[in-house]
Write a structure and sequence with these properties.
This protein is mainly α and 61 residues long. 72% of the residues lie in helices and 0% in strands. It is built from 3 helices and no strands. The longest helix has 18 residues, at 16-33.
Length: 61
């Protein structure tokens, strides 16, 4: 399992922009499905997730 996590982190580091775009898309879907009731919380979660992958938030949600 440790090798898997290491591989996932390496992938995220090398493909930060794509990972950030995926996080944004997932956040948008969640926001849409919750009727935009939790937009502020979802955006904060997106920012935290993007900071923990690669070099940080590259998409400026």
């Amino acid at each position: 399992m440790n090798d898997f996590l290491r591989s996932a982190k390496d992938f995220a580091d090398k493909h930060d922009e794509q990972v950030d775009q995926g996080i944004d898309k997932a956040g948008d879907q969640i926001d849409q499905r919750t009727g935009s009731k939790y937009t502020e919380h979802i955006d904060k979660g997106e920012d935290i997730a993007q900071q923990r992958t690669g070099a940080g938030d590259t998409t400026g949600s």
